[in-house]
Amino acid sequence: MLRNKWRLFSLALLGVVGIIAGAVYAAGHGDAEVRISTLRHDDGRVEVGLQQRDADGSWGERTLPQNRFLRPDVIGEWRHSSPIAVEVTGAMAEDAMTSDSTQSTAAPAELYCIVHHGADDDPFWTTFNLVAAQNAHELGLTNVQISGEPAVADHAAAIMDCVDRGALGIASSIPDLGGLRDALTAARTSGAFIVTFNSGADVAGHVGSTVHYGLDDRGAGELAGREFNEAGATGTVLCVVHEPVNIGLTDRCDGLASTYNGAVETVQLPAGTLADPIAAGSAIGGAIVANQAAGVLVLNPALSHVAIGTVQYLNSGTLVGSIGRTQFSLVQVYEGQMLFAIDDGDLAQASHVMLALKNVDSSPTARAMLALTAQQAPETTTMLIRPVVLNQAYIDNLPPGWQQQICALAMQIAPDQAPSFCNQ
Q1: When comparing pLDDT for 11 and 91, which is higher?
Q2: Which domains does the chain have, with CATH numbers?
């Protein structure tokens, strides 16, 4: 049985041979001889490299693709190495120069993937995507794929697609360790550099992540609990969860419960409610009435205006807080519509992720680390963003004239949504 498995491995290796050999021929339009070198390691992996015959008939040094290991548990699937550049010399170069068409021998830019669990209409992830794309451009990374996959199965499939295409670096959030563990472990074993971010700080080490960036989710929840305490809330506070599976949101609710002096009730919104303010308002309003809630904590800034509108409609006096902020949060707190908003670090997370991937692109030391197996990977470095609360005390410490700046910007962008104090 084991012998049959290694025969199947040979078939997979032939697929790699064909791809590399075809690339060599296309690059030069001439005759060249190449061969594939393979080395089976003690742990069962097969390492693949390329050799090209020199003009004197000898075989040159092995060229090793970045992703060059075949795992022993992959049977009957085509696997691909990352692209490599092959130097065109002698007759091949002359033939290429006289060809009617111009051929480029430059290797395509290394692929980097960022996969997260955010929906397209989520303001946090909209900002994250824009900042990450802009930073990639500024850092000179020309082949970066950014995708949001709210369904865990689609998230895992997107990671595996990046593995199959030989991504050098893969960054991923970890909303659900159980659903993503296999994909992220496979990515790490393939030789990709793994960065994790946002949800999953406590479990990043289980998938071979080298570094994790994210908000201190539990700390943000703890800070929210203290804000409700200082405001004199004594009844039940609702913790509104907008995603069906996200360990980061669970950490926020747990943090709230650990510091708030009263009871905390989790309200799970139906899937897709983030894009349906009527359904979200109905669910939040029903929970306020049922629990006679003293406070509501929403975990996504898109829901802050929904919670505010619902409280106003019910005339309940329920206090509203938010983990996550929008451009309106400061005004909502200033005008008393919301007790506080906590900055969730969307800009910082996007910037840190891109810098980590750029370090892989430019650092020989980081590239050398890719040869390590997941078991040999160093302990994950976790970098958590300290939550900052925007409350009335924060506003009192703002420099004079901040209202005028907001009003000037609002009049340029959306005059009909200018704060009420702009008319005073």
Answers
A1: 91
A2: 2-98 (no CATH), 112-216+346-385 (3.40.50.2300), 217-345 (3.40.50.2300), 391-424 (no CATH)
Q: What is the pLDDT of residues 45-80, one digit of tens each?
A: 777 878 887 777 777 788 877 666 666 665 666 666
Q: At 106, is the secondary structure helix, strand, or coil?
A: coil
CA distances from 337 to 220, 311, 317, 331 (A): 20, 9, 10, 9
Paired sense of beta strands 46-52 and 69-70, if any: antiparallel
The burial class, CB within 10 Å (0-12 / 13-18 / 19+), for 363 is exposed
Range 202-241 burial, b when 16+ CB lie within 10 A, else e: bbbbbbbbbbbbbbbbbbbbbbbbebbeeeebeebbbbbb
Say which residue the tokens 């199947």 belong to. Answer: 8
SS (H, E, C) 320-388: EEEECCCCCHHHHHHCCCCCEEEECCHHHHHHHHHHHHHHHHHCHHHHHHCCCCHHHCCCCEEEEECCE
Q: Give the residue with greater pLDDT, 19 vs 385.
A: 385
Helix, strand, coil percent values for the chain (each to nearest 5): 45, 20, 35
Are 321 and 297 in contact by the 8 Å Cβ rule? The answer is: yes
Straight-line distance from the first to the last Cα atom of the chain, in angstroms, rounded to the nearest whole number = 83
Structure tokens of 30? 């001439």
339 Cβ contact partners less than 8 Å away, ≥ 6 residues apart:
227, 228, 231, 295, 319, 320, 321, 333, 391
**pTM, two decimal places:** 0.73
Residue type, 349: Q
Residues near 98 by beta carbon (within 8 Å), at least 6 away in sequence: none
Q: Which residues are 37's β-sheet partners? A: 49
The C-alpha atoms of residue 78 and residue 13 are separated, in whole angstroms, by: 8
How many CA atoms within 13 Å lie on the side-chain side of 189?
19
* Band (237; pLDDT cuts 50, 70, 90): very high
Residue 359 CA to residue 139 CA, distance in Å, equals 10
Residues in the chain, overall count: 424
pLDDT level of residue 92 (50, 70, 90 thresholds): very low
